[in-house]
Design goal:
Blueprint (H helix, E strand, L loop, with lengths): L5 H10 L2 H6 L5 E3 L2 E4 L11 E4 L4 E4 L5 E2 L1 H9 L3 H12 L6 H30 L1 H12 L4 H6 L3 E3 L5 H8 L4 H7 L2 E3 L4 E3 L4 E7 L5 E7 L10 E3 L15 H11 L2 E4 L2 H9 L5 E3 L7 H10 L3 E4 L4 H16 L5 E3 L7 H8 L1 H10 L1 E3 H11 L6 H18 L2 H15 L3 H11 L16 H22 L4 H7 L8 H16 L5 H5 L4 H12 L10 H34 L12
Length: 583
């Protein structure tokens, strides 16, 4: 248990400016000796929240919410008491002694401090150097004004190799800490800055801490990669990034909705268009940590990923992951080859805002629109691909109403009968077709055997996820085998390929190797209590390999049945039928 001394808690209550803390999240207006604003804890239309700077308390006279600065942070941010105290102590510069957890927090804090100093340095360089003036001209040309630049704390890393390093030395920061924070590297005899000659965008984690940077080249003719990000380290983890979360918390809560983009330039584009309840996941697949952080703010999520094939595939995967977390997401389908920043540059901020607000599709509508966009109604292969993809989506949502609506829609678009689609869907869907409402048949012996092999494949996947050291044994023994399920086989082989390139398992990174359906299956495998995690893989492999003989036996039985039927047909003495024609 973490214990914080009462005198420390009291000191935080006394020194924290409650008007400033609440005012960062809620717009407050002075009224007499107090301040008033819309209460963030219920749908408030008339200002019901009163904040007293002298009593250091807040009260809502509508919903009854009340408390001090610590309880406000705790309830607004949806964090524990200890986390609320820790955040306030950090803002006030009050040292906390909370044991081992505090020791770890202090280690991380020194990295956060270095990155805060680096952000200040980059901001100063942008506005106070000759090189910075050139970078500013580039930003102005891109449509960013001073207000936006300062809002997002955009800066410049000078071309000279060690200016940030020297600046941090003057602040008495240790070179090793600078290296571990990701802003400095060591050479043979000296130290040098990681980022040089780039416009710098600070990146935040899910708690609003600056944990790294994305640097963009801005000079014509630069041969380096356009973007360069901080390398993953103790605090910079892509799956923990939610760009703009600290600034957007209040807007998200006020709107009770959030737009989730792929990249930080898309968030800046949305801000320029007047859409401020926006976050970005930095081009990675949505992670559980990101989903949980978003869920603490709102459960109304609008995805707006790039309009190309990769962006659409990422959006499909995100819809599945959010649904798995209990969030029914909407999505905006951008025209092909456009991202939000491109759309703004082409059509202007007003048109971008209009598009974002007026083109929100519910998840299944988005999936349908994406699949239909690649449909060629004159190509049978394209028709089958469209049909099978939609069957998988319908099976995931598992709703009789959705099935009926979209099978009818598919029938109209494909110019076929609903009955034919229902027949195909009933045969191909992994879940029983719900519209017919037929009683489920008991699992046959053969299906039971098939499930045994499928579950062994799933159990092996789960085992290898947590035990990388066993993958070579599995790969050697399963170099080629007859799969019980093509999706689990694909996941397994991708897992082998992933471990060829990675010494450790980063689950969020591995999900990025999978398509939308495989990512969903992997989530089901890892969350299933029925699918156990085994330390020994030999038994699982032997069971999986037996599926080959099971399939061969099935094939032989089918061939024997066919031969037997042919034999009976030939041996049957059919009576000769004579038809006498009427004269």
């Amino acid at each position: 248990m973490v214990l914080i001394p009462e005198e420390t808690i009291q000191k935080i209550r006394e020194e924290a400016d409650i008007v400033e803390i609440i005012g960062d999240k809620v717009k407050l207006n002075k009224k007499g000796a107090n301040f008033v604003g819309l209460c963030p804890f219920h749908k408030d239309t008339n200002p019901s929240l009163t904040v007293s700077p002298t009593k250091k308390i807040y009260t809502c006279f509508s919903c009854g919410a009340k408390g001090n600065v610590i309880s406000f942070v705790q309830n607004f941010e949806k964090v524990s008491f200890v986390e609320a105290v820790t955040r306030l102590a950090g803002k006030l510069g009050i040292k906390l002694d909370i044991g081992a957890a505090g020791a770890k927090s202090q280690v991380l804090k020194k990295y956060y401090d270095i990155l805060e100093l680096a952000t200040n340095f980059y901001e100063f360089s942008l506005y106070n150097t000759a090189e910075g003036q050139e970078a500013l001209k580039y930003l102005y040309k891109r449509g960013l004004d001073d207000k936006i630049i300062k809002r997002f704390r955009i800066g410049l890393a000078p071309r000279e190799g060690d200016l940030l390093y020297k600046a941090l030395l003057r602040e008495q920061r240790l070179p090793l800490d600078m290296i571990e924070a990701g802003v400095v590297r060591s050479g043979k005899n000296d130290y040098y800055d990681v980022f040089r000659g780039r416009i710098m965008f600070p990146l935040e984690d899910i708690n609003g801490n600056i944990v790294g940077f994305s640097g963009r080249v801005y000079r014509e003719g630069d041969q380096e990669a356009k973007y360069m990000n901080t390398a993953e380290n103790a605090i910079f983890k892509k799956g923990q990034i939610l760009y703009n979360i600290e600034q957007a918390r209040g807007e998200i809560r006020a709107a009770d909705a959030v737009y989730v983009f792929e990249g930080f330039m898309d968030v800046i584009a949305a801000h320029r268009a007047g859409v401020e309840n926006a976050l970005a996941i930095m081009g990675t697949a949505l992670t559980d940590a990101q989903i949980n952080a978003i869920k603490r703010l709102t459960e109304n999520v609008v995805l707006c990923f790039d309009g190309d094939a990769a962006g659409r595939e990422a959006a499909k995967k995100a819809i599945y992951l959010l649904a798995d977390a209990g969030i029914t997401a909407k999505a905006v389908l951008l025209p092909d080859k456009y991202d939000p920043d491109d759309y703004l540059k082409t059509f202007g901020p007003e048109k971008l805002k209009e598009f974002l607000l007026e083109n929100k599709l519910n998840g299944i509508d988005y999936l349908y629109a994406v699949e239909k966009d690649t449909l060629d109604p004159d190509d049978i292969t394209s028709i089958e691909e469209f049909k099978n993809n939609m069957f998988r989506h319908l099976s995931f949502f598992n709703s009789a109403v959705i099935n009926e609506l979209y099978l009818k829609k598919m029938a109209a678009d494909l110019k076929v009968t609903e009955e034919s689609l229902q027949n195909d869907f009933g045969k191909s869907s992994p879940r029983p077709f719900q519209l017919a409402r037929k009683p489920e048949k008991p699992v046959s012996f053969r299906r039971h055997k098939k499930l045994k092999y499928e579950n062994s494949e799933k159990a092996l996947i789960k085992t290898l996820i947590y035990h990388r050291d066993k993958y070579l044994e599995a790969k050697e023994k399963l170099f080629s085998y007859t799969a019980a399920n093509r999706h689990t086989r694909s996941i397994l082989y991708k897992l082998f390929d992933y471990y060829e390139k990675s010494e450790i398992m980063d689950l969020d990174e591995f999900r990025g190797w999978l398509d939308a359906e495989e990512a969903l299956i992997l989530t089901e495998i890892l969350n299933s209590e029925f699918i156990g995690e085994y330390a020994e893989v030999t038994e699982l492999i032997e069971t999986i390999k037996k599926n080959k003989y099971y399939e061969q036996a099935n094939q032989m039985r089918n061939e024997e049945k066919t031969a037997d039927l042919l034999k009976k047909f030939r041996e049957t003495k059919l009576p000769l039928i004579t038809i006498k024609l009427k004269e």
